[in-house]
Write a structure and sequence with these properties.
Layout (H helix, E strand, L loop, with lengths): L6 H5 L8 H8 L6 E10 L7 H7 L16 E6 L4 H4 L4 E5 L14 E6 L9 E6 L26 H8 L4 H7 L41 H8 L21 E4 L4 E7 L30 E7 L25 E3 L5 E3 L35 E9 L1 H4 L8 H7 L7 E7 L9 E2 L8 E2 L2 E5 L8 E5 L5 E4 L26 H16 L10 H12 L13
Parallel strand pairs: 3-5
Antiparallel strand pairs: 1-2, 1-4, 2-3, 4-5, 6-7, 7-8, 8-11, 9-10, 11-12, 13-14, 15-16, 16-17
Helix pairs in contact: 10-11
Length: about 550
């Protein structure tokens, strides 16, 4: 066919003459249904903004008409794939990709995958899928600044590792321009503290977001300008190492649900001398079959102090707590890249990030803050070291022993409350009265044990035998501020019987037993068995 225009050839750059429109199409980044974007704002609470606030957001959006109808947990995103941010029309409102049954965490400034069903359609809707996973020296469940993946200061090069462990010549320091006190505390020297860079550090020509002269860096503007960001706490959260078959759910502030197998550091097996996480069982050693477990933990690797210490030496990093560091915002985070601080006295011996405190964040029955542990097969008493805190008389007199390899439900924390609700009637709200029942089953009715708290204000306790305390001084009180000791029934009965025998044999001044006294003693002695009863009450 002659005289026509080969559009395909022109689009591919093969033609000598290219029209403006075709050139524009040819030079555009390729369309993709999946793009990388920076989170500008999170619309988690759609009631926060007034109509005026929403109108103020619309001018910079590619799809402003859907802003006021965006569901909870939508975001405003700035697409950065293929340089789209610098040539694109603006930010985009993106709905959650997953339905409201699953609501993923996401914070301003983090980077996210955006799915766009029709990327060539105007005013299209994007759907955000999840925060983008980054290299291990960047990835942080609390807050991940994706731009740190461009950081070239990662690990210790093999050519310098020997030099760092030995003596350095004076000339090497002079040639490099580095001082002996170089470390993360000095922002003026490299590598410096973890920062919130835009693109490749020290290369203004390679930036992810456009920077306007006279304005703060774009990631700083996003971080400080986010309304949703005011409801987020940046803090160090230990990393978690899972087993291959585990399903793990984590929030951003150290709340974890693990659907896995029986696992955890105990009083007998501590992590300090371990080289690996307790997720690892070489050659399957220690793995217990049929031990499916749901582990709900709030506060793994609890810090001994309220404020973690970024200058803590290795011998002060106890149990499974992570190494922490202060970033350029003055906030603490997990130190994910300690091996770069070759001049820092504390971190200089860390040669590889992946080998530093491999047991960080492991489940720890002894020191994790709060846990509910549901297992089909575990050594619950042993894991919690309950033998060490079980009173001796219970072990010696009642054969109380640790129970191994059994199903368990365990709750452990510093403070535990069990509350049965009582709701007063209020308008359309009906009255609710609850109860508590703790029951031990047994096919032998005599061995059933029960503690019940009823809605009418009674506490019912029943068992074949009820033992309270070991009888040491001032141990048991019936009633607040009780002062009088209880009377021992058998001892009192024996004492009174002896008294009756002796008093009944007394004689008067005429040498005969006193008939009235003898009769009274006989009557009292006959009724002594009534002192002892299977039921009683305190007045």
């Amino acid at each position: 066919m002659s005289g026509g225009t080969d559009a395909i050839e022109k689009l591919s750059g093969g033609g000598a003459s290219v029209g403006d429109e075709i050139a524009q199409v040819r030079d555009k980044p390729p369309l993709s249904i999946l793009s990388r974007a920076v989170v500008v704002e999170v619309l988690n609470d759609i009631s926060l903004r007034t109509a005026e606030d929403l109108e103020a957001l619309k001018p910079g959006l590619t799809n402003p008409d859907i802003l006021e109808f965006a569901p909870r947990n939508s975001i405003i995103a700035r697409i950065i794939s293929m340089g789209a941010e610098k040539s694109g029309p603006g930010d985009m409102v993106c709905f959650p990709f997953f339905p409201s049954h699953i609501q993923m965490p996401l914070k301003q400034g983090e980077q996210v995958w955006i799915f766009i069903e029709s990327p060539d359609a105007p005013k299209t809707i994007g759907f955000w899928m999840s925060r983008i996973s980054e290299p291990d020296y960047v990835e942080d469940v609390n807050y991940t600044h994706g731009e740190r993946r461009f950081d070239q200061d990662v690990g210790i090069p093999a050519s310098t590792s020997d030099k760092d462990s030995g003596e350095e010549s004076d000339s090497s320091s002079e040639d490099s321009g580095e001082s002996e006190d170089e470390g993360y505390k000095d922002e003026g020297k490299k590598p410096g503290p973890p920062s919130f860079v835009n693109g490749i550090p020290d290369n203004e020509a390679v930036t992810t977001l456009s920077e306007k002269e006279g304005e703060d860096p774009p990631f700083d503007l996003i971080y400080t300008g986010s309304l949703a960001g005011q409801s987020f706490t940046m803090e160090p959260v230990p990393r978690f190492t899972k087993r291959p078959g585990d399903l793990v759910f984590q929030g951003s502030n150290n709340a974890t649900i693990v659907l896995g197998q029986d696992r955890g550091w105990t009083v007998e097996e501590r992590p300090e001398s371990a080289e690996n996480s307790n997720a690892t069982n070489p050659e399957g050693e220690g793995l217990r079959p049929f031990s499916g477990t749901i582990d709900l933990i709030a506060g793994r690797s609890r810090f001994p102090k309220v404020e973690p210490d970024p200058d803590a030496a290795d011998d002060k990093l106890v149990d499974t707590i992570p190494r922490v560091i202060k970033n350029t915002k003055g906030l603490l985070e997990v130190d994910k890249n300690p091996s770069v601080y070759t001049k820092d006295d504390i971190r200089k011996d860390v040669k590889e990030n992946r080998l530093d405190r491999a047991f960080e964040g492991d489940p720890d029955f002894m020191h994790d803050a709060s846990r509910v542990y549901i297992s089909m097969n575990t050594d619950g008493d042993k894991n919690l070291a309950l033998d060490d805190v079980t009173p001796g008389y219970m072990v010696d007199n009642h054969d109380i022993k640790a129970v191994d390899e059994k199903p368990y439900i365990i709750a452990k924390s510093t403070e535990i409350r069990i509350v049965a609700r009582h709701t007063q009637e209020d308008g359309d709200r009906p009255q609710e009265t609850g109860s508590i029942r703790i029951i031990r089953e047994d096919e032998d009715g005599e061995k059933i044990c029960a503690i019940l708290m009823t809605p009418d204000g009674k506490v019912l306790i029943d068992a074949k035998e009820i033992v309270i305390g070991d009888g040491r001084d001032n141990q048991i009180y019936l009633g607040d501020q009780a002062e009088e000791p209880a009377v021992m029934g058998d001892t009192l009965a024996d004492m009174l019987a002896t008294f009756c025998d002796q008093a009944g044999a007394e004689v008067g001044n005429q040498g005969f037993p006193l008939a009235q006294l003898k009769a009274a003693c006989a009557t009292l002695k006959a009724s002594l068995d009534n002192f002892k009863s299977t039921v009683t009450k305190v007045k």
